[in-house]
Amino acid sequence: MSDSTARLDLDNGSVELDVYQSTVGQPGIDIRKLRATTGHVTFDPGFGNTASAHSAITYIDGAAGILLHRGYRIEEVASKSSFLEVAYLLLYGTLPNVGELLTWESEINAQTLLNEEMRSFFDAFPRRAHPMAVLSSATNAISTFYDVYRRPMREDEIDAGARTLIAKMPTIAAWAYKKSIGEPYVYPDPDLGYVENFLRMTFSNPISDEPIDPVKVKAMNMLLILHADHEMNCSTATVRGVGSSRANMFTSVAAGMGALWGPLHGGANQAVIDQLQSIHDDPDATIPGMIARAKDRNDDFRLMGFGHRVYSNYDPRARVIEKFAQEVLDSMDQADPLLDIARELEAAALADPYFAERNLYPNVDYYSGILFRALGFPLRMFTVLFTLGRLPGWIAHWMEMNLDSETKIMRPRQIYIGEAERPYPAIEDR
Ligand code: SDX
């Protein structure tokens, strides 16, 4: 039932459209009957003005720089919850009590092992393979060991698929990394927590199995939470879109990884470090020079880690990460010159009218790479780490889409500007 209506006047008449109010944020004009009643479609490249579904998972107030997961502020869940606790919150809508959390953690920990036949899968990739290519392929590959294709999946099967993906993704990510550095795969240890297990599988090896620094565990836990969900971003919209054709959860998530890999999305964290490193290494690459290139309409150069489709304010996640990066570096008695350069570059950009006029601020990717480096990850693993964080968000949206009676297969329209019908010329007449 709509709350009010909006009237659209066209050359060939007008139409009353229902308007739906949201709990918080923008109301929505329901245009589902627009084409049938007016013969018109709307035009909205990138869907910046188009809501594709009702959702209750995450809310972003872009103007105020507020991010809520199921109503809880990101700053609170990032500082008070474990990543698995936030994953449970995103999937099931409530924070788990002690018993629910213990059951959830033990169910996940019991499934971190990959089928042994997956070893040959990793061996089939060249060492130089980008780990995102390995991760998205492996996500489809592990689905072949489970019965995930039954349609429609029962609720218990959906829950089982979610647990399998969340449990096994850290092992896949760690083994993709081990493959790329030619070290033996490290098997999961069910006695370790989710994050500690991932760090041990990534950084330990048969001749060095030091206990994982609790500071690194805390930082990784917070980073995964800060990447956990962000409403209808490009990769989540992709997961929903693929899932709308009734494709299974695993292949929908694998498609989301492809979208996240792009440098305009989750690949930006890697691109930010490349930019900061070039300022550090190359005397010809200066902060004023970068700002000038970012402002030059004839240059497709972008200040990576800056700007956002929804935030017209500072991304709250960027603030938390920047503060934590300093704390982690201090605790390890390390300094990273790229953090100083990042801060200088941020100050120069925010002081420039070009960025201020367009409300361009640091986003989640601007400082995350500094923290990933401090934790010992190589550049090529950064988007993989974003993937590990975003996984429960993708699954929560896939589940919400799958259970939503309003869901229809994604099939946008177009404004055709090609040739009108014309006669087919024989080849000798061309
Ligand atoms: C993520 O959607 C999400 O929620 C994503 C995410 C998540 O958690 O899922 O938050 C994660 O993907 C963060 C974004 C990471 N990407 C980058 O940091 C890449 C750099 N940023 C930009 O490419 C851009 O800001 C986007 C892609 C993030 C947003 O692009 P929009 O909303 O399509 O904006 P636009 O390209 O239309 O830009 C509007 C104006 C343009 O200038 P004018 O044409 O008005 O003169 O702002 C300019 C752009 O040229 N602009 C930039 C800029 N970002 C926008 N100019 C220089 N540097 C930039 N970074």
Keywords:
430 residues; mainly alpha; three-stranded antiparallel sheet; 18 helices; 6 strands; 6% strand; globular; binds s-citryldethia Coenzyme A
Span of the ends, CA to CA: 58 Å
Helical content class = 40-55%
Largest sheet: 3 strands, antiparallel
Provide the succession of SSEs. EEEHEEEHHHHHHHHHHHHHHHHH
- Total E-strand runs: 6
Category from helices, strands and their pairing: mainly alpha
Strand content: 5-15%
Low-confidence stretches: none
Question: What would you note in describing this structure?
Answer:
It is a single chain. β2 and β3 (28-29) form a beta hairpin. The chain is globular. The longest helix has 27 residues, at 155-181. By secondary structure, the chain is mainly α. The strands form 2 sheets. Strands 1-2-3 form a 3-stranded antiparallel β-sheet. It has a 3-stranded antiparallel β-sheet with strand order 4-5-6. α6 packs antiparallel against α11 and α12 (268-281) crosses α17 (364-374). The mean pLDDT is 95. It has 18 helices and 6 strands. The structure holds s-citryldethia Coenzyme A. The site of s-citryldethia Coenzyme A has 22 residues, from α17.
Topology (SSEs and partners):
Layout: E1 4-10, E2 13-20, E3 28-29, H1 34-38, E4 58-61, E5 66-69, E6 72-73, H2 74-80, H3 83-92, H4 98-109, H5 118-123, H6 131-143, H7 155-181, H8 194-203, H9 214-226, H10 234-243, H11 249-261, H12 268-281, H13 287-295, H14 316-331, H15 337-350, H16 353-357, H17 364-374, H18 382-402
Antiparallel strand pairs: 1-2, 2-3, 4-5, 5-6
Helix pairs in contact: 2-9, 3-18, 6-7, 6-11, 7-8, 7-18, 9-14, 9-17, 9-18, 10-11, 10-18, 11-18, 12-15, 12-17, 14-17
Bound molecules: s-citryldethia Coenzyme A (SDX).
S-citryldethia Coenzyme A (SDX) binds near residues 233, 305, 306, 308 and 363.
